[in-house]
Amino acid sequence: MGVPLKPARNWWLWAGAGGFLLAMTLWSAQGIGFSFSELFCNLGSGSRLLQESWPPDFAFLPRLYQPFLETIYIAIIGTVVGGILAIPIAVLAARNLSPGKLIWFADRNFMNILRTLPDLFWAMLFAAAVGFGPVAGALALSVFTIAVVSKLWSESLEAVNMGLPEAVRSAGGSWLQMVQFGALPQALPHYVSYVLYAFELNVRASMVLGLVGAGGIGMILETQRANFEYERVTMIILAVLVAVLIIEQISESIRKRLT
Amino acid sequence: MPKHRVGWATWLTFIIAALFIFSLWAIEFSPSRMIQVPGQVLQQLSFFYPADMAYGWETVLPAIVESIQIAWIGTIIAAILSLPLALLGARTLFPRISRFVKLISATARAFPEILLAIYFVPIVGLGAFAGALAIGISSVGMLTKLGAEVVESIDFGPVEAVEASGGSRLLALRYAVFPQVLPELAAHWLFRFELNIRASAVLGVVGAGGVGGVLLNTLRYGHFDKAAAVLVLTIIVVLAIDMISGEIRHRIIRG
Known about the structure:
The complex is a heterodimer of chains A (259) and B (255). Chain A is mainly alpha-helical. Chain A has helices at residues 11-31, 36-41, 43-52, 65-93, 101-116, 119-130, 134-158, 163-170, 175-208, 217-226, 230-258. Helices cover 77% and strands 0% of the residues of chain A. Chain B is built from ten helices and no strands.
């Protein structure tokens, strides 16, 4: 055997991709005013800010307890409501289960559009619609959860073994019975796992919902940030980080047992 | 016949239902409020039509472009920083350091971009630059983790071949590791870019540039037709970028 030939490269493609990357980067850097000189000139004021934000104001910690609980409530409500509503949306978006091409197509696009808007956009919209406070946050996270769970779970539903649903169907079962007894039980562990995953995302998101007035610990964060009380900002962020990491660890260990 | 017992699923459902009801009670979401909410939302919805598209082209589109630029620069920063970290984080290449690198990246991942932006805004001033830095730093964690997993999954034959023929570690990286990992890494970078577009869209809330600030202002002053323009344009642009980027990712992975 001789030396294998080096595969010929498509130089035009590489040059085009490289040129596009470079052009895009330069254009963006210019557009956002990226400058190293600014970065280094401002390091002085940056270090002053960092000094101000350290050490964290531990005396502030007790006042975080109530808003923190509110954050968790918002996350729980959003996960439960969104998790339940995601079930029909995911079923209709699964190609193998959906009762009709048109419903499948409409539902699929609905799901994709839900996914394009970030969580804080929903929070702003609901805060405008139902007023500032935790209810807006819970609604926002419900929509966000629908978007996450329905997308992931519809893919698991498409992967179920179709033998069972077809058996239900040929035994005279209705469409609903086919889904309920043939398909859902197979994908149930995935469902629980995705809902838990959405809960983790929701806990993280609910910490910042308050920045736009949708309740939870973020509302305190927003007032302290606006007043440049960075010792307190650091305290809040540290507390949030620790809480998020703990909840994630618990949720992850449950998820690992499920699948 | 097996004894009938209450399964864990029943218990779990029960616990979750209890937590849910308690949470509703705790945020004072009363049944009367529950009936009100759909009406409020529907009524609000009617104010959003028709969208003020003149405002959309004039103010919203430049803000969306800025969000895309923030996401792009953030992704570039993250890709550059995460490349060496991904190599160091690979258990198979650097068994000693990898644990430490992975721990750091896990902590960094827990940080939402917007919290980082809160620190970067006073340091580099209001605007898109702060946003790009926040996005970049917060993406490093995830890209390092995914990158390390890609590096761990490579075929070690070529690495051993380079080293057996007298090549150094560095040469092994260049000729045996990079060619194997680069396509998958690029796919991860693109995916992160898609996520970063959504992340950069909200950074305006804390003054770090992009379309989020525009939406917040229009809603704050009750200009719902202008807010509708923000939503319509954001949805269209994000869908388009997702489609293009997803297509490129599939092609890269397939080779």
